[in-house]
Amino acid sequence: MEVIYKKPESLKDEVTTYCPGCGHGIIHRLIGEVIDELEIREKTIGVAPVGCAVLAYNFFNFDVTESAHGRAPAVATGIKRLLPDRIVFTYQGDGDLAAIGTGEIIHAAARGENITVIFVNNAVYGMTKGQMAPTTLPGMKTTTTIEGRNIKIHGYPLKVCELLSQIDGVFYLERTAIDSVQSIIKTKSAIKKAFQNQIENKGFSLIEILSPCPVNWKMTPVQSLNYIKEVMSKYFVPGVYKNKGGE
């Protein structure tokens, strides 16, 4: 029998512990497929900080280390500089990267560190039960904005790709989503390009992925995918925000 689809070698045989409809499982799968296709599993090191992202080491079949909340870019920098032949990536949520970790990601980008950043944006603090995050949309209800995010009180959401695009040290930035099969295919392509950039020593790459959090959004999985497509993608517009390679 011809095998046309199988579990990536870069993923373990583990039952998921993520919430129903969560996007992390899809993103894990895409990363695993990319690492297998690039044949870099034996020299890949992931860095997972506090948040839902910290569970990643349970599922990836290669070395993954934890870091303090927001400090994954600093840990990845240390690993990559000490072991420049390794392929190092961070796996971070918006409550991590865009809040307590804002300084870390900005300065890693400014230094042009040759690392890959996978940034999962679900617009909420997932692990700690749904508080407002830096990426929570205007009017979006959370456990700390029960009447919706009020711009006059809480300020505007932080657009990470747009912000980092102004930094000279950045090589490649792209925002994608996983709300449809077409979007998932685009996301895999972007992740693969980001890893390829590191293999070719081109510098700092970040892929921002719009991902559902049905439990904290108080939606069904299908509703959450529609929310990404109809609401979230209009504020956080998918696309390539910087590509020094010009491809």
The biggest beta sheet reads: 7 strands, mixed
Helical fraction equals 25-40%
- CATH-derived architecture: 3-Layer(aba) Sandwich
Q: What is the percentage of strand-forming residues? A: 15-25%
Report the CATH topology name: Rossmann fold
Number of H- or I-type helical stretches: 9
Please outline the helices and strands.
Blueprint: H1 24-38, E1 44-48, E2 63-66, H2 72-82, E3 87-93, H3 94-100, H4 102-111, E4 116-121, E5 124-125, E6 131-132, H5 151-154, H6 160-164, E7 170-177, H7 181-199, E8 204-210, H8 214-217, H9 221-235, E9 239-243
Helix pairs in contact: 1-7, 3-4
Fold and architecture overview:
- The chain is an alpha/beta fold.
- The chain has one domain: Rossmann fold (3-Layer(aba) Sandwich).
- Helices cover 36% and strands 19% of the residues.
- It contains 9 helices and 9 strands.
- The protein has a 7-stranded mixed beta sheet with strand order 2-1-3-4-8-7-9, sandwiched between helices. Strands 5-6 form a two-stranded antiparallel ribbon.
- It starts with 23 loop residues before the first helix and ends with a strand.
Structure described in brief:
The protein is built from 9 helices and 9 strands.
Which features characterize this protein?
two-stranded antiparallel ribbon
